[in-house]
Amino acid sequence: MGNGTAAGAAKVRVGIVGGTGYTGVELLRLLAQHPHAELTAITSRKEDGMPVADMFANLRGKVDLAFSAPEKARLDQCDVVFFATPHGVAMAQAQELLAAGVRIIDLAADFRLKNLAAFEKWYRIPHTCPAILEESAYGLVEINREAIRNARVVGNPGCYPTTVLLGLAPLLEGRAGGQPLVDASTLIADCKSGVTGAGRKPEIHILFSEASDNFKAYGVMGHRHHPEIVEHLERLHGGPVGLTFVPHLTPMVRGMHSTLYARIAPEARGVDFQALYEQRYANEPFVDVMPPGSTPETRSVRASNVLRIAVHRPDNGDQLVVLVVQDNLVKGASGQAVQNMNLMFGLPEDAGLGQVAVLP
Amino acid sequence: MGNGTAAGAAKVRVGIVGGTGYTGVELLRLLAQHPHAELTAITSRKEDGMPVADMFANLRGKVDLAFSAPEKARLDQCDVVFFATPHGVAMAQAQELLAAGVRIIDLAADFRLKNLAAFEKWYRIPHTCPAILEESAYGLVEINREAIRNARVVGNPGCYPTTVLLGLAPLLEGRAGGQPLVDASTLIADCKSGVTGAGRKPEIHILFSEASDNFKAYGVMGHRHHPEIVEHLERLHGGPVGLTFVPHLTPMVRGMHSTLYARIAPEARGVDFQALYEQRYANEPFVDVMPPGSTPETRSVRASNVLRIAVHRPDNGDQLVVLVVQDNLVKGASGQAVQNMNLMFGLPEDAGLGQVAVLP
Amino acid sequence: MGNGTAAGAAKVRVGIVGGTGYTGVELLRLLAQHPHAELTAITSRKEDGMPVADMFANLRGKVDLAFSAPEKARLDQCDVVFFATPHGVAMAQAQELLAAGVRIIDLAADFRLKNLAAFEKWYRIPHTCPAILEESAYGLVEINREAIRNARVVGNPGCYPTTVLLGLAPLLEGRAGGQPLVDASTLIADCKSGVTGAGRKPEIHILFSEASDNFKAYGVMGHRHHPEIVEHLERLHGGPVGLTFVPHLTPMVRGMHSTLYARIAPEARGVDFQALYEQRYANEPFVDVMPPGSTPETRSVRASNVLRIAVHRPDNGDQLVVLVVQDNLVKGASGQAVQNMNLMFGLPEDAGLGQVAVLP
Amino acid sequence: MGNGTAAGAAKVRVGIVGGTGYTGVELLRLLAQHPHAELTAITSRKEDGMPVADMFANLRGKVDLAFSAPEKARLDQCDVVFFATPHGVAMAQAQELLAAGVRIIDLAADFRLKNLAAFEKWYRIPHTCPAILEESAYGLVEINREAIRNARVVGNPGCYPTTVLLGLAPLLEGRAGGQPLVDASTLIADCKSGVTGAGRKPEIHILFSEASDNFKAYGVMGHRHHPEIVEHLERLHGGPVGLTFVPHLTPMVRGMHSTLYARIAPEARGVDFQALYEQRYANEPFVDVMPPGSTPETRSVRASNVLRIAVHRPDNGDQLVVLVVQDNLVKGASGQAVQNMNLMFGLPEDAGLGQVAVLP
């Protein structure tokens, strides 16, 4: 139950709370192949006793575990527990698990926003453990690696924020002659998500017959990921940020494509933005800055933890266009969560995450 | 409110019960363009007061009607009422509407099976008006035209039965030297349906994220359309019929493809099956027997009331393979219902049904 | 062969050059149902003699015409000829047809750009009839209705330009206190197209196995529709315009969704943009300004000539977000071409274009 | 270059001829992760010098190899060469490679059919090395394991044959009281394939805009996989077999679903078919016989080498219905090829093939 299990040593004992959604089954797919993790418990009150492979046939012969009711699962004997649950579940159990020495990775929003008021406004529930929130680390490895290493609680980022933050980080962190590289007050994120981003819920608008051969925006007047993105952009930038965020639903199962627009500041017209991105991510195992002129495809990262970025400056003008793709269920959710686990337990950061993307 | 409105005379006043599903919105699309029909009421208790175009944006500017609660809608002042409802609704209201002189077209199963026991076994509700069932007509125009013309109540066929019955009718009706053309005891219908066939219900298994890029069979051990198909095949054949029926779900919105297998009887080896089909359907406005060697595509009938058939006899052997395609929401449901209405009111059979299929 | 055929009079005799692509088959679908048009010839050298319904099975029983080699088709006896051809074909035949009194609607780019240099740069062919280009009318009815009425030659707009121009027209035409409503130098059009927008060509990148379950940008560094959009935006605006245009390919057959971003000018902060759009398009039969808060879906216009617009101003700030959807093959191509024909021949503008969109 | 490289010893040196199609990129995906294989050469005359990751972006950072022209690649220094090429290529190079001690796995048809006449009829090329064909092994491991182990040349099965043969093998091999279990003269295989089955070729009929939201049969009058299936069914059965085979194209990228129909022989009515299948495949690592009543989904095997089977006997009658799913690019092609390589080189049969299927 201790912190820090070295690679090669005993396996990390893993529990999953709420394994019947897409981030749950994706955690199972990744952890079933992880060389240093041992799945020990998965909870679902409703499905108590059902083998997970009965619900998700891809796991037949790969995962022997059955769902168990929360009170039966011995989560306190795990090294780490992933919450693949609706918002609000992790914070209700965090205190008790931490007391038992268990570390927590929440794939919902309970530990994403340091700003309590914003959390309560957007998620419409009171936050029940602000002290734990205070100590928790935001689980976007590429901008917060050291804090995550030692964190007892990690808030795994939302799918949209992962793409927008990694796509804009080099621009907001950077300075040219002491001045910002871009106008941080007029940023735009035009994002397109596959339908799994909406979860595995019985709702009409995400039926095949509604979402197939169809494209639409949604949440233009407000989306929960907006405050999350802005909070962390402002941290990177060291000042206020203005962002217009328009998410869209695109008829594919997995995948997210974010098209980001930033106006280059006059002082930064001479910057080599391609080089800026390449240097920023040179040592990142899961961020691929593509060659100039590239237009990354979502399928190039399907079922893998890689996120790809391409930087464009049309006509060498003042408008930067940054293209970012990821698999929303992997780098945008469960893969990133495993990456966090690896860091937290001193494992190689890419352990269990070496899959080649499935193309076609 | 009388029976029989001649073309050119006053429009047929149409009511729809339950317009929030796919057969409902498809009825609205077709009737909004129908030259001899006037939409007068559409009911939905839940959506009382909401303009139908607020739910289905394709109707904006085309249909001004709002949903109204059943008790407010003056269905008794309609000439005909379509039931685009779950099974059991039409039979609950049939007596009263008939008494008011209103004719009924039920798109659910209440009036499809003459065999009461089979109905109650498969739909798990008692039939509350067997006398009306007795007088009702099965609404498959191409095999029951005359009865429909004068019927007060029509049971609109299921989508699978429409393809299987029209695909096998020439074989089961026909005789060669007084003998059947095929072995009626070993018929097989391997059917593939688009996902709208499962309706507009909030259920996990028909989510985009479940049904897209996926293919599966279902209902192999029993499906409600099986007794409906067999009952009418036996009527056509004049004797018992054995049918193996395997429905599949295919990742497309609309469309149904049935691949039908029948063993040619020894006496019928000399029959020209292509000619048999062409003659059988020569005068049918909505059945297209394609040239020899054709493989009809579902998109060739998308959004149209046409059903296409191709007849194959591989290697000139004893196995016939009949391919049938339709749009499950048009010829397999709402278009066929309008075709029935046209017949019942003495209108041209193709009134309002002349749309060219949308390809691509 | 004269100009101006009144409704009710003799039908307009229509020829189509190049009917084997998607705009061709869509023209056939629409014209087969048009009350005032008569299809008289369709050319394809390669398919000479083949019934069009053999290539496009949706036309079986609806269109009897066969393709004929160009030299056999008597296009000079048509009232109007549509060119559904690659760029450069219409201009090669325009002189001769005009001399015979035939009017021309080109669905390719030959008559879209008045700027000859831009045309030759982007299409890499010399323009062979600049005088005809000079007299031709740009066929975007809602901004050029009067010129089209009397034009002998109409350049039918590109699909992207149709959405971007109609989506931005009210902003660029308008003034507040004599000042522009938006910063015309920082416009952004983030556009998503269904795959039919790429045409019916045997190319790897638009195979089902490449484009399905995938999303990507393309043409970020330059796209032929960019100069077309800018030329006409500048005309509307009466001054220079700066536009960043990023097209994307989305895995659907038909449909286009453009998300447009414009910064509100300080003088225009008090403008009611919803009202502005509603008034601008109040009398347009094919432009639907949706209620505040709407997010239009592409399927709501599938197979119809309607274009829908929604105007958003998140947090009542300075960034306008305009959402526009159309069917790229109808309002974005063949439907708009028929709308132009209707205008040119004095027919009701919506003749043959009253189809309700196919949803689902 | 020797035969038989034990696990743990030096890696198997692998060459690939023709890596620009879907079976090629899938081989690369699998071999890049294979613990005992080393990719040493991949040929493409047309793409000589291009890194494979420039063509298939999923391989960025995973495969460093570049395509090389055939004459430059030192294929004679490989232990095994995979041919992911059109039919006819492998047989042209087989003699020379075998002479150099290189073993061959052909993913095309050159070594699938022992019947030379059938090969030449269906593939329309003469077979240039009948002696090698004679010694080659048909690479369907589950029915031919021992022969494959020692083969110098393996003909990797077609995708359809893999499902039909494994789906019917227990029925054709079995006997009840010395009699066949089913009527081998009236077998039916109704098969549905994802579009990658048609390859990566620039052809109109497999464009997204043609194949999406569409379903059709093809090849009803004859398909190249028919003689391959029949040849091997007859070997299993020890006698003549009659098979009706109808392939269909379904709008998904990967996946194949075969629905197989067999009439139970009177002597076999008492057989427990579920047990028959379970016993037949009890020790097969890649064949999963599902519980009674199952309907396997193609996505449950997406990107994995597992093939799943479910056996149905509706109403306990005489018609068996066997459902089989596989990923056509893995068990139906490249995964099976790697499985063959593992066997041929004494590696664990599942080395490099342990991927959990990607669901959703």
From TrEMBL, chains A, B, C, D:
Q: What is its EC number?
A: 1.2.1.38
Active site at which residues?
C159
Query: Where does this polypeptide localize?
Result: Cytoplasm
Query: From what superkingdom does this record's organism come?
Result: Bacteria
Give the catalysed reaction(s), semicolon-separated. N-acetyl-L-glutamate 5-semialdehyde + phosphate + NADP(+) = N-acetyl-L-glutamyl 5-phosphate + NADPH + H(+)
Pfam family membership, one? Semialdhyde_dhC_1
Indicate where this protein is primarily found: cytoplasm
Q: Where is the Semialdehyde dehydrogenase NAD-binding domain?
A: 13-151
> Its pathway?
Amino-acid biosynthesis; L-arginine biosynthesis; N(2)-acetyl-L-ornithine from L-glutamate: step 3/4
Q: Which residue ranges run through the membrane?
A: none
Q: Which UniProt keywords apply?
A: Amino-acid biosynthesis, Arginine biosynthesis, Cytoplasm, NADP, Oxidoreductase
The record's section on Gene3D superfamilies has:
Dihydrodipicolinate Reductase, domain 2, NAD(P)-binding Rossmann-like Domain
What is the recorded function of this protein according to its Swiss-Prot or TrEMBL entry? Catalyzes the NADPH-dependent reduction of N-acetyl-5-glutamyl phosphate to yield N-acetyl-L-glutamate 5-semialdehyde.
NCBIfam families listed in its UniProt record: argC
The record's similarity note reads: Belongs to the NAGSA dehydrogenase family. Type 1 subfamily.
Protein name (database record): N-acetyl-gamma-glutamyl-phosphate reductase
Species in which this protein is naturally found = Pigmentiphaga soli
Task: Tell me the organism's taxonomic lineage.
Answer: Bacteria, Pseudomonadati, Pseudomonadota, Betaproteobacteria, Burkholderiales
